[in-house]
Each structure stands twice: as C-alpha cells, then as structure tokens.
Amino acid sequence: MALLQILSLVLLSVQQSTSAGICPEYCAGQSVHFPFRLSTQPDRCGYPGFNLSCKNQIKAMLSLPFAGEFVVRDIDYLYQRIWINDPGGCTPARLVHGLNLSGTPFEPQYPESYVFLNCSDAAISKQVPEVRYISCLSGETFSVVAIPVDRLDMYRTLLWSCGKIAEVLVPDWDPIYGMGLRWTEPNCMGCELGGGTCMFKSDTGLDIRCSGGFNSGISTSAKLGIIFGAGIPLLCTLGLVCHLRRKANDFYNHHQHHNSGISVPVVGSSRSAAGNAKGLDGPTIEAYPITVLDESRRLSRPGDNTCSICLCEYQANEKLRTIPDCKHYFHAVCLDEWLKRNSACPLCRNTPHISAAIVSS
Ligand SMILES: *[C@@H]1O[C@H](CO)[C@@H](O)[C@H](O)[C@H]1NC(C)=O
Ligand SMILES: *[C@@H]1O[C@H](CO)[C@@H](O)[C@H](O)[C@H]1NC(C)=O
Ligand SMILES: *[C@@H]1O[C@H](CO)[C@@H](O)[C@H](O)[C@H]1NC(C)=O
Fold first, then answer.
1. Distances 324 to 250, 277, 289, 307 between C-alpha atoms, Å
2. What is the tens place of the pLDDT at every residue in 296-338?
3. Which atom of ligand 3 is nearest to the CA of 96?
4. 43 Cβ inside 6 Å of ligand 1
5. Which residue, by CA, sits nearest to atom 8 of ligand 2?
6. CB count, 10 Å around CB of 325?
7. Rounded Cα distance, 321 and 318, in Å
8. For 147-181, how does the pLDDT look when each residue is reduced to its tens digit (9 = 90+)?
9. Which of 191, 218, 246 is nearest to 12 (CA)?
10. More confident position, 287 or 52
11. Cα–Cα distance list, 85 to 74, 113, 220, 276 (Å)
12. How far is the CA of 103 from the centre of ligand 2 (A)?
C-alpha cells in the first residue's frame, strides 16, 4: 500500500507538472491561468475573450470590446467570477450609462437596476440612507447618487432636488472592490473544485478537459490513497467519493494559500456584499426537495446524468437534491456541503433564497 501511495503521488506530480507546463503565469502576484491568459502567452493558454495584459507587473488589465479597459482586482476561478475596476478610480462613471458587455464571455454578477441621480442638495446621502453616494462624480454643490429602482418610490419626496441621469442595469459593485462579472463558458468549476488544471482538450477547437487533481487520470483507489495516506479498498459509494473530493479540495485550497499567498477562491467567496458568501442553514437546505432515482435514472431534464459538483454519474437509488427555482439537480450529499458554504446554485449562480428575500422585503 505504501508503494501504491508513493507511486500515485509521483504520478500526480508528473501529470501536473507536464500538463500545467508553460501556461500558468503571474501578474502582480496574482496567478493567471486558464481560461485567462496574458497576452504574452501562447493563444492556447486561454479561452477566447479571456486575454489579460500585464501592465508593468503592477496590474492585470482586461480590455472589453465595447466597455473599454479595466484593472483586474481579483479573479475567483472556482466560482468563475472576476472583479474589475476603472483604472481612473471611478467605477460608477463606467456604469452610469450602462455597461455594454457585448462580444465578451462575461455577464454582470447580481445585476440590479439602478437610477443614477444628480441632486442639487449636496447632503442628500445623509437624508436618504439607501442611496449610494458617488463621490468621484459629485461636486461641492451637487451630489450624484444611485438608488435601486424599486426603492425610488419610497424616497421620492426626499429626492425632490434630484434629476435623473440614467436608469441602467448594473452588476454588483463596490467602491473598492470594483464590479463583479461572471462567466459560465468554459465551465471549469468541477475541475477547479477537484484541484485539477482546466485546459483545452486538443490543439484546435474549444472542448476542454481537466488534468490532474481528483477528477481524472489516476484511479479512484489511488486518489483515496493520497487523501487518507493509506490504502482504502474500493468499496466506497459515490457519495463518499464526493465527500473525499471536497476534503481534498479543502486541503488543496489551504495548501495553495500557504504556498503563494494568493487567495483567489477565498477572497471571492468571503465577500458578503451580495449576501452570497454565506451558506444556508440546515433547515433551509433540508427544505429543498429530494428525489430518489429509480432504475431508469431519468431526471426531468434529459441529458442531465452527472452531478456537476463531484462529476460523478448518477446511479439508481441515489438521493439527489434540487434547488427549487432553477431546477438543477445534484447529489444531495454534494449539494448539502456546497450550500453550507455558498447559497448560490453551482451551475447557474442563482440565489433563489436571496432574491426572494429582496422581493418580499
Ligand atoms: C485576444 O487574443 C487573440 C489571440 O491573440 C486575439 O486575436 C484577440 O484580438 C485578443 N482579444 C483582445 C480583446 O485583446
Ligand atoms: C454594444 O455596443 C455595440 C457597438 O456600439 C452595439 O452595436 C451593441 O448594440 C451594444 N449592445 C448593447 C447590449 O447595448
Ligand atoms: C450635476 O449637475 C451639476 C449642476 O447642477 C453639473 O455641473 C454636473 O455636471 C452634473 N453632473 C452630472 C454627472 O450630470
């Protein structure tokens, strides 16, 4: 068993070093890897639309065809989100007339309709706590503020001194953190979750594969051997494999942290601005419907036969759980763990729970 362990560790490291080869790069201390690439790297290191340029090793820049150039503040490869800032330090100025993301792989994260107002009362933000004061657009005699469209009626009388500049759908944004965008293609989430390296399958085409980590290559018993430091016979259910994969991922994240000081997945998921970072409590998770698969293993969505969290195929008699609003299925054991840490659906990032709360409040 010890031999198997050593062998599998060697296999794993060889596989990772050859496949990860030339692509991962650093810019300003941040790791840049698939689907992103730096413009100095070979084309096939990144997916189309994910070019970054590294300015003097001080900051990574993202250039969007119709929205212009932004500084990359953070990339969360696991949840597939990126935070970008205006290089001039005034992100709202880039949002006030809308953010045109045409021709990019990105979409706004937690988009919300805001009204931007120009108010002759310079102290308006003190009277209406819910407005977001935009200091970089305001002057001594006027305030530029933004307020969610659905709050406008509530404060209309207090906002009498204000003229409307624009009403636009904007991503979640923060004066320091910038604005959040997300991408769904390519989907490397399962690969990242297992600590693998996501990459193109071949020299042409857009198909991707996962190399190394706990998703491919080595056998299940070798994976378990690595995780436990001891040989474990292959009698585990898929649920257990899923569980171990998460364990492995915890280890991986932790490890990465210490190695490089980069907190890519963690910084992203520890944000609370959108309420997404917090997981759900036990009773809420329990309330999500369970389906037990019958022998036919048929789900209401055809073609949906693999759990996107652990990448295991569903088997008869397994318990699956659904997120009510988006109807995505996962192994219950996988989804429960996921939801404890993150309330968004791993596939579509909807947070049914939170949007419902906003609507009803
Ligand atoms: C990204 O890189 C590709 C390949 O080098 C190039 O064709 C494309 O124009 C670049 N896109 C942007 C937005 O820089
Ligand atoms: C984005 O800008 C381009 C070029 O100006 C325009 O053709 C396109 O319709 C715009 N898309 C949106 C969604 O506004
Ligand atoms: C807001 O209004 C003031 C004058 O009332 C004007 O000088 C300023 O340019 C306006 N700002 C914007 C962003 O519209």
1. 27, 19, 7, 16
2. 777 766 567 778 777 677 877 788 888 887 778 888 888 888 8
3. 13
4. yes
5. 102
6. 14
7. 10
8. 999 988 888 888 888 999 999 999 988 888 899 99
9. 218
10. 52
11. 10, 19, 43, 20
12. 9
Which of 90, 117, 118 for a ligand 3 pocket mutation test, highest count of atoms within 8 Å of Cβ? 118
Domains of the chain: 17-106+180-211 (no CATH), 112-170 (3.30.70)
The whole-number pLDDT of residue 252 equals 38
Query: Cα(36) to centroid of ligand 2, in Å?
Result: 24
Mutate-to-test residue for ligand 2 from 102, 168, 169, 170, highest number of ligand atoms within 8 A of CB: 102
Q: State percent of the chain over pLDDT 70.
A: 71
Going by DSSP bridges, is the β-strand pair 51-55/81-85 parallel, antiparallel, or unpaired? Answer: unpaired
C-beta of 51 in contact with ligand 1 (< 6 A) = yes
| pLDDT reported for residue 301 | 65
Q: What are phi and psi of 224, to 5 degrees?
A: -65, -35
Average pLDDT of 55-65? 91
